Amino acid sequence: MKVLAAVMVVALVAGCGGNRFDRDGGGQVTRFSSGPISKACLSSDRKARNSRLCGCIQTVANQSLSGGDQRKAARFFRDPQRAMDVKMSKTASDDAFWDRYKVFASRSERSCRGY
After folding, report:
1. pTM of the model
2. DSSP character for 114?
3. Cα 60 from Cα 110, distance rounded (Å)
4. Is the CB of residue 97 less than 8 Å from the CB of residue 69?
C-alpha cells in the first residue's frame, strides 16, 4: 500500500511547468501546463521533480481531474499521509475521488514516462 501511494505521489510530483512548449524527439510539440499540481510538484523536495515532468503531469491532470480534485491531490505533496487517509476513507466522496485519482495516476505514468 505504501509503495502504491508513493508511486502516485511521485507521479503527481511530475506535474510541474509553466505553460511551456517543448519538442519531443519526434518533432511533435508538447504543451506543458501550470496549475496546482505542477506548483506542488516544483515545490516538493523529491529528487525526481523537474519542470518537464511536472508540466506533463499537470497536463494529464487538466485532462483527468477537476480543479477541486487537483487542489486536493496537490495537498498530497505536503502531506503524503493525507493520500493514505483519503484512500482508506470509507466515504462515498473520497471513494469516488480515489477512483478518479487512480485513473489520473495511471495516465500520468504512461504519458510522462521518460521526463
Report:
1. 0.71
2. T
3. 10
4. yes
Block mean pLDDT (10 aa), the chain, length 115: 46 41 41 88 85 93 96 93 95 97 95 88
**Residue 17 grid coordinates:** 511547468
Instruction: Find cell 494529464 and name the residue.
Output: 60
Q: Are 60 and 100 in contact (CB under 8 A)?
A: no
**DSSP designation for 21:** E
DSSP state of 6: H
Residue 16 to residues 12, 83, 93, Cα–Cα distance (Å): 9, 19, 27
Burial status of residue 61 (CB atoms within 10 A of its CB: 0-12, 13-18, 19 or more):
buried
